[in-house]
Amino acid sequence: MALDRKLAVVDLTTGNIEIKPIPLDVRKKFLGGRGLAAYLLYKYVKPGCDPMGPENAVIFSAGPLGGTLASAGSRTDVMCKNPLTGLLGSGNMGGFFAPELRWAGFDHILVKGKADKPVYIWVHDGEVEIKDGKNVWGKTVTEAQWAVREELGDPDIKSAVCGPAAEKGVKYGNVMTGIKNANGRGGGGSVMGSKNLKMVAARGTMDIKIAHPMEALEFDKKYIEMITGAKVNQTMGTLGTPFIWGAANAWGGVRANNFQLNQLLYSDDIEPESLDEISNQTVGKYHMAACFGCQVHCRAKYRIPDRPLSQKLGMVGKYDEGPEYTSQNAFCGEPGCTKAETLLICNHLVNQYGVDNLEIGSLISWAMELYEKGILTSKDTGGIDLRFGNDEALIEMIHHICNRDTWLGDVLAEGGLAAAEKIGRDSLKYMIHVKGMNHLGSDERATPGLALNAAMASRGSDHLRSRPAIDLYHLPEQVLRRIYGSPVPYDGPLSPDQREYAGKAWMVFWQETCFMGVDCLGTCKYHTTFLGATLPNFEDWSKVLYYNTGLEMTPREMWDVAERCNLIERLFNIREGMKKDDPLKGEMLVDRYFDEPCRLGAPDVVGATLDRVKFEKMRAEFYQHKGCDEDGIPTPQTLSRLGLDTLDAEQPRL
Amino acid sequence: MEARVLVIDHDKCTGCRRCELVCSVFHEGVSNPSKARIKVEKWEWEGLYIPMTCRQCVDAPCMNVCPVKAIERDDAQGKVSVDYDKCIVCRSCVAVCPFGAMNFNPAEKKVFKCDLCDGNPQCVRFCDMKAVDYIDSRKESTVRKRDAALKMAEAKKLGATTVYEG
Prior knowledge:
The complex is a heterodimer. By secondary structure, chain A is an alpha+beta fold. Chain A folds into three domains: 198 residues, Aldehyde ferredoxin oxidoreductase, N-terminal domain (Aldehyde Ferredoxin Oxidoreductase,  A, domain 1), CATH 3.60.9; 203 residues, Aldehyde Ferredoxin Oxidoreductase Protein, subunit A, domain 2; 194 residues, Aldehyde Ferredoxin Oxidoreductase Protein, subunit A, domain 3, CATH 1.10.599.10. In chain A, 40% of the residues lie in helices and 12% in strands. In chain A, the strands form four sheets. Chain A has a six-stranded mixed beta sheet with strand order 2-1-6-3-4-5, with helices on both faces. In chain A, strand 1 and strand 2 form a beta hairpin. Chain B has two domains: 79 residues, Alpha-Beta Plaits (2-Layer Sandwich); 57 residues, Alpha-Beta Plaits. By secondary structure, chain B is an alpha+beta fold. Helix content of chain B is 27%, strand content 22%. Chain B has a two-stranded antiparallel sheet with strand order 1-9. A two-stranded antiparallel ribbon of chain B has the order 3-4. A two-stranded antiparallel sheet of chain B has the order 5-6. The termini of chain B are far apart. At the A-B interface, strand 13, helix 7 and strand 14 of A face helix 1 and strand 2 of B. Strand 13 of chain A pairs antiparallel with strand 2 of chain B, so a sheet runs across the interface.
């Protein structure tokens, strides 16, 4: 059946491999994917361990809907203790790795220890092997994936790899699969690099038995129509996520020049329609690509266009996919660059180096502001004129960070907080981060709900853990009530006004639970209540899970699973030293959110700042919804309600 | 009515492989691409995805090579199928198919191929791009003609001439 996939625990120090079944009661409690990974991380990683040392673990996970008929059962979660933040590290990527892992018989591969020389893990039809990595180590993301196919003689192998940046110990290395499917924000690639693990390669021909095949096919037809019928997904299917940038920038909701402006001016060249035209010209009319089983197909293919800068750098015609909204932030808004070729080149570089686009773009933009303020000088930059809008400087810095071959590149490779300590002076003041992770490129000063999400995200500043994006749609209150009042009742305030503070804590809590739910199942966030208000959530998941896997769970039970798993992530962070008001590791936004008003944008944005008192009240409400005390620590009652009171004491359930 | 045919326009394919998935679920009740009758061949580094399946050939090599005449073509349905009562599983058909469309299932010791899902191919039903389509055989080339003509029309707009002026 679809639930009979196993866990493999691989110890790279000893070479020992243990294969364990996943009992049904564990499924019912944690489902799988990110949720079960959080449990495994909590139980298998020793508190306070060095994230780059052998005691850390890196866990590759598919969800129970991975490889099934459920729309977009493509997602791979990678979890570890993050070397960048010292807290939870977790990323999620699409592509084709997770279904292949499941056809090979596994849902979770937990890797601990450290190999004494480069290796990779080969998973195939129920077996797991540790193989010599000499043919794959040192290679770029795509070269490495190609090399393992050559070595094993099978072009259908799918692998999750780390890139050259992670091999060199850059602290925000991604796990990657395919051309651009990036498991970012979690530092999973860096942890792989620290273990001398280049990749997990998978190939499987084992059945995933569909519990009710004909019913599943018919239900899925309806389910897919619900997903592709949403206007937002149709737009995404033609323009990709850059459509978000178009709207957000026009409105004044992005970071520009690090955090000094909230709109990138003169940016026609990187508008979604302009990028679409480049794909049209370099690839053709049909240029959208999809992850496994997904009919949204939000990933554009492109070749780097023939323009002076791409010519100069020898990059003309290089194939890649994307860019995503986040790359527009990281390589256009934040560093103040407005050329499409810069964006497309940077996107290609980070994909090949296997490094987090948001982190590297934000760090370079931060350095640009330090350069502007005179905190960094051209002596520090190695002669690079690191001013905002200098496209070539941005590209050069990506190389220097990933290769760690200049002083500044090496310093920034260690991450923001470590860099701020080395650079000193007032540098930290200019860094936009939460928990030591740089903030993505959106500006939430005018949207308290979205700001709360950024502060609360369990892996550090991020939009994919709990962002109530539909807060920007001005939906009527009764629509909001229908969404946010199920599957658990809620009768507190809910406002269609995104400038309000009241009720936003519940929306963030609800989204946090929803996003954990979808990550436990192993499907995509674009297929649930994230960017579209009409997309399926708990109610329909319950059916899709039943038809595909046979597992019967009510919407409320799935909600409880998600709530439980979110709480484990919180407990992990608390164990690793998270304190709510700690400016380095806490659940707080930097002062600039409260002190500097937005200077550009629409009338409802200009002049906006966050109100510190109201923000803290909102945070307190959020803790209440989660069943935590005023410091954000789960209360004993909450732990016992969710069956986590024995978490610390119990033997690992698997 | 003229028999319909399965046509593939690989330009439209997004590479999602839902066709493989629904094919194996419909026929075998399992998700397993190695049991699907259709497969998307990929060159990811160039963004090239080409779905491959049986072309239901008129003069089918699988049919011709079969030593026990277990493979027949039904012209009314435009379908080549295997008679499992006659088949001796020598796999000659697998060996000769120029498209790799005849497959072998080692667990069940059976060859298998596309059967057009009895007139409602699931791969077509679930392909929103219609990269795989099931249409009147005469229409396949009309679409190509029009696409090619459009390219010529566009070239003309850019100054190309169709008249030799030398």
